[in-house]
Amino acid sequence: MTENLKVEVVGLNRVKGRHLVAQIRLTNTGSEKKLPWTGEMGDNTRPLGKIRWASGIGVLDARARTWILPYQPAGFPCLCSDQDRDGLGYFIDPGESVSLYAVMPAPSGNPETATVVTPVGPPMVDVPISDDPPATPAGMTIPDPDAEPVTPVTRRLVTPSESLDRSEETEDDGADLRVSLSSDVLFAVDEATLTPKAQAVLARAAKLVDASPGASVLVEGHADSSGTDAINDPLSTRRAQAVRQALATMVTRPGVEFQAKGYGSRRPLYSNDTDEGKRRNRRVTVTFAKPQPAAPAAEAEAATPSATPSSSASGVPGLTGSGKADGQPISMEITGLRQLPGGLGLLTYRITNQGAEEAWFNELHQAGDWMSFKYRAAFNVTLTDVEARRQYLPARLQVTDGDNTDSYCACTDVSGVRLATEKFAPGRQREFWSLFALPETATTLNVKIAGFGDLQVPIQ
Question: How far from 411 is each of 64, 90, 101, CA to CA, in Å?
């Protein structure tokens, strides 16, 4: 996202079996301007004013659906390269480099490789992890995470999807599956008796529960902000009880316990300021342990290092689109849809201003309120499994503080220090990315990016 800033992983070392040290080299490949690096490498999921230093360097633990960031010690933003502690300059001169480090928890399962994430470009996949001690450049001292109290900093990665008929939407956080069933499909207005259409919707939920290893299922009824608590609370409870009773007769796996609760309008998922937000808030949510993958061998194969080109390689022939921005011709090229461990996928694409004048391309963050996030990001992208009639939305990084949970897009950020990301000079090209869940059996997906046409993209 930053012109003339080259990012390289020069070391990824597991320490004491439970810590991970990442070393990054930043190089200013330009010949004229100095480049600031502290804001560029900061963790964008922190409150504004605390996004600084190298706190945004991390790894993706795909199987645990966790975004791992550097430890938080007392008195410093992170256990990572710090301008004051490490005596680093704020700028990188043209042709010069700066070496950075970040110390974090090691990903689960003792993997041989990891996906390294930074705020300035697409995730870097299949980076080998060494169990040898880190080899550091002269002058760098990597702190011992066991020498002082440190707090792990992780973000839960949630992958949403929904049926094309809008009857249900699902969120997967790696541990639990939350299936939100549309009350408009399940019930008539102000009623708690299941409709004939509810049978097919509940049948899919029952199959997922049958495939789950968990012994308990939580059924929760929710309403929108219309009406009063005196109406919404008992109605949401009766609807949850109706779904619980129906699922109990459809689930064939023995020993499953069901619990039903109603919350009225007190737990909205979306804004009640729009009709679409209200429709999605009228729901019955079924939560249970995530079903086990059907083909673990395929997942292990996906985790093996391969010769698949990186996102900077040439795009797949034919996977292009064109449009207009501020009257200038704008082009889009998909450079890959790559399968990652844990049922995740990485989509990469590039946008280019083909015109002779400067143009703003603002469509990447424009979407409905159910796809809104804490800050602006390139989240106006969807993947569709046409055969299964299911749509996949960009993954969310969740940050919980007490009772409040903020969601950030697991995709290219277009806010903060990158407020001009959507501003393209003539010939300017930028690469974007998004993380998604991928269906187990699909080999190609329909990809829709902003206002560009739909493209059939093979999964690598």
Answer: 18, 26, 23
* Beta carbons within 8 Å of 228's beta carbon, 6+ residues apart: none
| Global pTM exceeds 0.85 | yes
Domains annotated for the chain, with CATH where assigned, are 1-148 (2.60.40), 157-289 (3.30.1330.60), 312-460 (2.60.40)
Element housing 68 (H / E): strand 66-73
The token duo for 213 is 């290893």
Of 434, 370, 432, nearest to 407 by C-alpha is 370
Residue 40 has, within 13 A of its CA and on its CB side, a CA count of: 21
Segment 233-248 shows an average pLDDT of 97
Inform me whether the pLDDT recorded for 371 exceeds 70.
no
Q: Which amino acid is at 315?
A: G
Residues near 184 by beta carbon (within 8 Å), at least 6 away in sequence: 279, 282
Instruction: Give the span between the Cα atoms of 183 and 104, in whole angstroms.
Output: 43
pLDDT at 402: 77
Instruction: Report in angstroms the alpha-carbon separations of 343 from 156, 292, 299.
Output: 15, 11, 7
| Contact call for residues 229 and 270 (beta carbons, < 8 A) | no
pLDDT at 265 over 70: yes
Which of the 8 DSSP states describes residue 94?
T
Distance CA 443, CA 460 (A): 8
Q: How far apart are CA 317 and CA 89, in angstroms?
A: 43
- Element containing residue 220 per DSSP (H, E): strand 216-222
Task: Give the DSSP per-residue string, 380-442.
Answer: -EEEEETTTTEEE---EEEEEETTEEEEEESB-B-SGGGTTTTEE-TT-EEEEEEEEE--SS-
Residue with tokens 């804004």: 271
Which string of b and e fits 378-400 if b means at least 16 CB within 10 Å?
bbbbbbbbeeeebbbbbbbbbbe
Return the axis-axis angle of helices 198-210 and 229-250, rounded to nearest 10°.
60
Q: Which two tokens stand for residue 442?
A: 């699909």
The two beta strands, 113-117 and 97-105, are unpaired
